[in-house]
Each structure stands twice: as C-alpha cells, then as structure tokens.
Amino acid sequence: MAERGRARGRRSGGRARGSSPRGLRSPRPTRRGDRRWRLRRGLTVTRASGAAKVLGMSTTRRAAVVAIVVCALAFTIAVPLRTYLSQRAEVAEEEARQAELRQEVGRLEDRKAELSDPAQVEAEARRRLRYVMPGETPYMVQLPEDKAAAERPEENQSSVRRGGTWYETLWDGVTKGE
Description:
This protein is mainly α. It is built from 6 helices and no strands. The protein has helices at residues 31-41, 43-55, 59-115, 118-128, 144-162, 166-176.
C-alpha cells in the first residue's frame, strides 16, 4: 500500500525510491525529507528563489539592479537637498544682515532725534566745521603733537603747490623731463 501509484524501477526490486536495501538512509534526502530540508532553510530562501524565477535574474543581477535604483534615488534627492541647504544658509545670512540694518536704523534715528535740538546743531557746527557766532573771537590751541602731524601733509602739498595747477605741473614734467 505504501507504493500506491508508483512504478517500480528495475534496480529497486520493488522497494520504495530512496530507501536502501539494508535500511540505511542515503545521503540524498527523499522527497519527504526534501520538504523538511526546505522548511529548515527558511521561507526567505524559497521566496528569493521564487522571485529569481519570476524575474529570471540571478542574485548578482538583482543586487546590481537594487544598487542602480538606490543610486538613482540618491541622485534624485541630492540636487533638491543641496538647493534647500544653500537657500537655508542664504536666508540665515540675510536675516543677520537685516538685524544689523535694523540696529543701524535705530542708531540713525537716535542721531536724528539728537540733531533736532538747535543747541546740538550749534555744537556740531562749532566742533566739526569750526564755526563761530558773530562777535566771538576764535582761538586755536595747537599742541606739539598736533604741530608735527600738521607739518607732514604740508611738505607733500608744498611740492604740488610750487608748480601751480595740476596741468602746469604735468606740462613741466613732460617738457623738463623731471
């Protein structure tokens, strides 16, 4: 009854396929043992081999296709990511510049408020422009270090002033060969 539906082979002499004459197991697994062996290997191998059969590709080719897909995704994401990061840096830069400009506007508004006072305008005119009111006598106090600093530019200016105007100096330089 165990051999129902099977044809007997010439060599086996009526024995079941895969069974040895002495009752020893053969190194080759039987069909029943083959199923157990597949279950032992796990379902992932079966699924992978099923995918390989469906796609008709070897493991190496599948790995190459996966690598190409990953690279394509990386390149697809890289350009927008780089643009996003550079724009983020530019926005931070512009915000810092805007904060500096706000501080400068605040300082200039304070200065404008100071200069709205006529006394402050008069003090600035006296200090920076050396204006005096009618009837006042101006006095200039020169310290020794101021005198030394004032002499240096005069030496440079005196050589230019000796020759007259700039075009006269240029003409003299061309004609006399200085």
